[in-house]
Design goal:
Blueprint lengths: L22 H7 L30 H23 E5 L14 E5 L14 E5 L15 H8 L10 E9 L3 E4 L5 E3 L2 E2 L17 E5 L4 E5 L21 E2 L3 E10 L5 E2 L18 H36 L1
Antiparallel strand pairs: 1-2, 2-11, 3-4, 3-11, 4-9, 5-6, 5-8, 6-7, 9-10, 11-12
Length: 315
């Protein structure tokens, strides 16, 4: 016999052959609208688990090692591929950089084939023989670890920081009492340490910089053993682009010296680029070639048509 309500009736049908369900049976059958321990809802649908015990959260102290591990991995990746901090160990770049300054070096752009440009302040590995007489201080274990992950400048690597004056293909020179000249253009160097000359302590040139190499000089000219002082070494005082770690783009520490390390305007002067004078000629030739070819084709088309007509007539 059917149990429950039929469609179209306001009252439930009586059950003549059985006693009324007990409260326990009603609860088990779900007719009372309650829930059972299995989690079914009052409407007969499966429960959503809202009555389950809340999930116990992991203790902060258990998550802390994981957070530290992720932070260290990220720091190592940033130091390896993006940005690294370096400490200024000498006065060779005064007044632009002071001893003890921390600079951030862009290591990303070289991965995309970028090469050093004139005027940039760059960090580079010792090309060989530049730091033979200088022994770096022995760091302790904590310093080694922090420098490994990039949170502290390395004290063991033999790195230098100088300003790029000329790049591959340039001709650079400096006579006593005169300015530095690149491709015949005199540089106005306001970044030179006050009281210093451009190169009176070590005149040089003219020197043709090989492709793939740079000529570097310190801003404190009378206190910088730069390219001028290593002309007897392989490379003639120049540094290979492959030795460049990256460009120092900002002073990050101390806070009162935070500043951007831009490229001085003197390196943007017209004619400084040795290829600049030939660029208009090359552009003109590149544009003229298609025009000449198009004109020749146009001039030869009528003659070709006449020749074809004459041949037809003769045949």
């Amino acid at each position: 016999m059917a149990v429950g309500a039929r469609s179209g009736h306001d009252e439930p049908e009586e059950r003549p052959d059985g006693p009324a369900d007990s409260p326990a049976q009603a609860q088990a059958g779900g007719g009372g609208g309650g829930t059972v321990d299995g989690g079914s809802g009052g409407d007969g649908e499966p429960g959503d688990g809202s009555d389950r015990a809340p999930r116990k959260q992991r203790s902060f102290w258990k998550e802390l090692p994981l957070l530290i591990g992720i932070a260290l991995i990220l720091a190592l990746l940033i130091k390896t591929f993006l940005v690294q901090a370096f400490s200024i160990p000498s006065d060779s770049m005064q007044d632009t950089l002071q001893r003890g300054d921390r600079v951030l070096v862009d290591k990303l752009t070289p991965w995309f084939g970028s090469t050093p440009e004139r005027g940039e302040v760059v960090v580079f590995h010792d090309p060989g023989g530049w730091l033979e007489d200088q022994k770096p201080a022995e760091p302790n274990a904590a310093q080694k670890f922090l420098s490994f992950i990039g949170l502290m400048p390395s004290a063991e690597e033999k790195d230098l920081i100088k300003r790029v004056i000329a790049t591959g293909g340039d001709t650079v020179e400096c006579k006593k009492g005169g300015p530095v000249k690149v491709n015949g253009k005199a540089l106005n160097e306001p970044y030179i340490y006050p009281g210093d000359s451009a190169c009176d302590d070590m005149p040089f040139g003219p020197i043709k910089i090989p492709k793939g190499r740079i000529w570097v000089m310190g801003d404190h000219r009378q206190n910088s053993l730069d390219s001028r002082y290593h002309q007897e070494l392989p490379g003639g005082g120049t540094v290979s682009d492959d030795k460049v770690v990256g460009r120092a783009f900002t002073i990050a520490w101390p806070l009162n010296r935070i500043d951007w390390l831009g490229i001085p305007g003197t390196f943007d002067q017209k004619g400084l680029n040795g290829m600049a004078s030939t660029a208009p000629v090359a552009a003109g030739l590149a544009g003229a070639v298609p025009i000449v070819l198009w004109r020749r084709r146009r001039l030869t088309r009528p003659s070709d048509a006449n020749e074809g007509t004459d041949l037809t007539r003769e045949g």
